Amino acid sequence: MLSSTVFIRPTTSQDQGAWNHYVCNHPGGTAYQLSGFIRAVEAAYRFKSICFVAQSRQQNQGRVQGILPLIHLHAPFTKGALVSLPYCDAGGVLADSPETEAALLAHAMAYAAQKKIPEVAIRSVKPFAGLDPNLTRHSGKVRMVRALPDDPNCLLGSLKSKVRSQVKKPMRDGLKFHMGGRRLLPLFYRIFCENMHDLGSVVHSFEWFYRILAFYGSRAHIGVVTTPAGEPAAAGMILCHPCLVSVPWASSLRRFNSLNPNMLLYWGFLSFASANGFKMLDFGRSTPDAGTFRFKKQWGAVPVDLHWAAFDPAVFPHLAPSKKQPAGRSGMKRNLAEAVIRKLPGPVSTGLGVLTRKYISL
């Protein structure tokens, strides 16, 4: 699509450097929008990406002015949806102006209409394209974000005394926090699978996390907490943008709850981010006043609106959201599915996840 000032086109493999440079230098960018996430989806789950870049047509010709990453997520024999982005809280359009955001969205709508894809789902951490924020604000979820000082000691001192005690106790009891990469992946995945089984949720494949680590390189890290006996008790993964560290996956094992490994895990991530100059840590989405919301709030995290919308390409060019966020499973169906998964043997539920998880966009 052309305008008087901006040219929009699909990306190629040669655009990865410019794409990542733009995301890393944009104040609204997140680690999910880096090319590594898109490449991991393609490699692990074999879904096609279609990503658009907006470039200047006049002065500073060729300078990137906006990006829109999209994944064509679909079950076999269905048209599915273009999602920006699946498996995370955020993605969406990133641009220098609302006008360029709108142009990128319009281009995505035209592409979806041409391919007869019935939905374009956008998940953003902010209002976008000049749309009324009341139309896109997620009504049931917020992201929890904590500003960070550049000194872990100052960070620790800013926490309430109860939280400081819960951080120090596992250290005194001999638990240890380990930070690394691929070497820790088997431990991380073992904990992740057991925790998801206990929660009644299907799991991502091992290859998914392997690809994330491979394509993110030094921007992805695994943290593992071990007991005094060396048993892995909690683990998580962080993805790093120059301004923001995101925690998309974290798990702890119920049988070690009395040792507070989850507190040491999150303190490990927070202190790492603070010591390395990151300004913010995103704990991920939560339902207001739910248990995970209160857990994140105790660290000093504050709720920030998510802006999700699913668009119908048939209304193009008006860009009116078809609904505020993609429809999920009803509560009854979800509770039933969780109960069934919890009753399955662990290896069976993991195998089920490997086969089905890629079709679940969240």
Automatic annotation (TrEMBL):
PANTHER family: LIPID II:GLYCINE GLYCYLTRANSFERASE
UniProt cross-references to Pfam families, sorted A to Z: Acetyltransf_6
Keyword Protein biosynthesis: no
UniProt entry keywords in alphabetical sequence: Transferase
Protein name: Acetyltransferase (GNAT) domain-containing protein
InterPro entries: Acyl_CoA_acyltransferase (IPR016181), BioF2-like_GNAT_dom (IPR038740), PG_Glycine_Bridge_Synth (IPR050644)
BioF2-like acetyltransferase domain segment(s): 186-297
One GO MF term: transferase activity
Keyword check for Magnesium: no
SUPFAM superfamilies: Acyl-CoA N-acyltransferases (Nat)
Naturally occurring in which organism (per UniProt): Desulfotignum phosphitoxidans DSM 13687
